[in-house]
């Protein structure tokens, strides 16, 4: 018995020692200033350097960084307003880069370093290994050329991670890392609100009619009117019974005029409810929790008559 007690004390002491030796996260003031970025780059033994800085509004700075070959490699964006905190590391896609000799992309063997850099700048460096491990598992399972662009979401405490990948080139199963965003919940909601106009402009480019201020019962009746229609839908309501998507619930597409096949793990199933009724919908996997998704929100998405399904693209608390 005494041996067991002694062993337990030893284990507890070692645990406390390990905890005490773990470095504490440094939370830098946002927006980041150049001295902080230079300090972190030096700390990470990076050869990158700041080429220029910009600020388009109060509380927001963007730094353009070059690598040791004097090529633009990344931008670092940081934003702060009220309680919001938003960091973005953005990189270049080979498909958009073309033959531009002044820019460079991030190789896959550098991805972990990018996660560490982003987490260090945001103030949660101790989380980067956990986030990166889960991201690698996701990206390895998703490597199929038919799926196209990927957006992966993760939540740790009040930090929302959003990572974007593009296919390296058409017909391959490799990816280019496009961006890592980390934001708290206030910034996440603000970010979602700010991309509503981007969604509307995308609908205009695709020549898809947008139906605003309609109800769930209106959506239910749409299949009876035009089985081949594709519409942009804006409807207010809340989500219930949020769960993983079943194989037979996967729609044939998730964006108008897109040939990309949806990847099941990128989406969830839920019931959209308003005062007129309810309807089963598909929505992107989200870093918002069930309670947050259950709030009354304005949902922007697409109704595909072919599948008789409403696919939510984004949801905002207010406009």
UniProtKB/TrEMBL annotation:
Question: Would I find Signal among this entry's keywords?
Answer: yes
Keywords per UniProt: Signal
Secretion signal span: 1-20
Extract the PROSITE patterns matched here.
Answer: PROKAR_LIPOPROTEIN
> Which superkingdom?
Bacteria
Protein name in UniProt = Uncharacterized protein
What organism does this protein naturally occur in? Maledivibacter halophilus
């Amino acid at each position: 018995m005494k041996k067991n007690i002694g062993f337990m004390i030893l284990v507890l002491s070692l645990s406390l020692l390990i905890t005490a030796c773990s470095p504490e996260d440094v939370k830098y003031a946002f927006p980041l200033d150049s001295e902080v970025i230079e300090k972190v780059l030096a700390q990470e033994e990076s050869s990158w350097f700041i080429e220029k800085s910009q600020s388009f509004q109060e509380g927001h700075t963007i730094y353009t960084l070059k690598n040791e070959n004097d090529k633009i490699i990344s931008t670092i964006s940081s934003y702060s307003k009220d309680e919001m905190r938003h960091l973005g590391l953005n990189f270049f896609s080979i498909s958009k880069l073309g033959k531009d000799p002044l820019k460079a992309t991030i190789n896959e063997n550098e991805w972990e370093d990018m996660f560490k850099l982003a987490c260090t700048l945001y103030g949660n460096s101790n989380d980067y290994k956990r986030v990166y491990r889960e991201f690698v598992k996701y990206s390895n399972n998703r490597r199929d050329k038919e799926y196209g662009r990927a957006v992966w979401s993760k939540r740790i405490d009040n930090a929302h991670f959003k990572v974007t990948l593009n296919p390296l080139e058409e017909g391959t199963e490799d990816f280019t890392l496009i961006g890592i965003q980390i934001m708290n919940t206030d910034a996440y909601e603000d970010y979602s609100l700010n991309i509503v106009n981007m969604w509307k402009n995308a609908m205009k480019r695709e020549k898809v009619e947008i139906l605003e201020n309609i109800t769930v019962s209106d959506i239910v009746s749409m299949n009876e009117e035009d089985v081949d229609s594709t519409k942009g839908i804006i409807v207010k309501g809340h989500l219930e019974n949020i769960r993983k998507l079943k194989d037979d619930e996967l729609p044939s597409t998730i964006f108008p005029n897109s040939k990309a096949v949806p990847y099941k793990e990128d989406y969830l199933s839920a019931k959209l409810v308003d005062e007129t009724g309810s309807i089963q919908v598909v929505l992107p996997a989200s870093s918002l929790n069930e309670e947050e998704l259950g709030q009354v929100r304005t949902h922007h998405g697409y109704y595909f008559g072919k599948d008789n399904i409403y696919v939510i693209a984004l949801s905002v608390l207010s406009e």
